[in-house]
Design goal:
Length: about 190
Amino acid sequence: KLLLRKQWYQRRVAITAGGPIKEHIYKEKHTGGVTLKDVESHMWVKEFAAFLKKSGKLTIPKWTDIVKTATFKELPPKDNDWYYIRSAALLRRVYLRQGVGTGSLRKIYGGRINRGSAPSHHKNASASVIRHALKGLVEMKLIANHPDGGRMITSAGRRDADRIASQVMSASQVAVEEAEEEVAIVAEE
């Protein structure tokens, strides 16, 4: 019964922290630092978006409050910080796959168009949103143009991405420790 409670608390902490815990990866494989691949993607994207907003170096286009992110969308994003989140997600994609271009990113961020009673089809995302976000990241010197086409991450971009990843990892480890303390308190009762 105690083990089930501990597992329940760990799942609860993982959900509130943003996903499954990858603590076993950090303990077993890493003798060095934490990289972007070691943390949950959505947790990292949120933190890196906050970093981009705090830095103030990313230029935001004037049209971000009225533009849709794709033709199949009905409304623009409700979150005011959506451009920072999209830029952080694009940087993560470039980090994971060097040489990725606007066309493939359009496919990744595309989705299903509702055609009424006709079957749904895939529709690509807006190229201008992706292109402007990539240009902003290039101006910040986080990514650069790849010699073979597309974009690649710079050393400064890799450094910032890994620094944020280590902060996310340490925050998730603190959350796990707090959950274990809660389990110990519940077990004593």
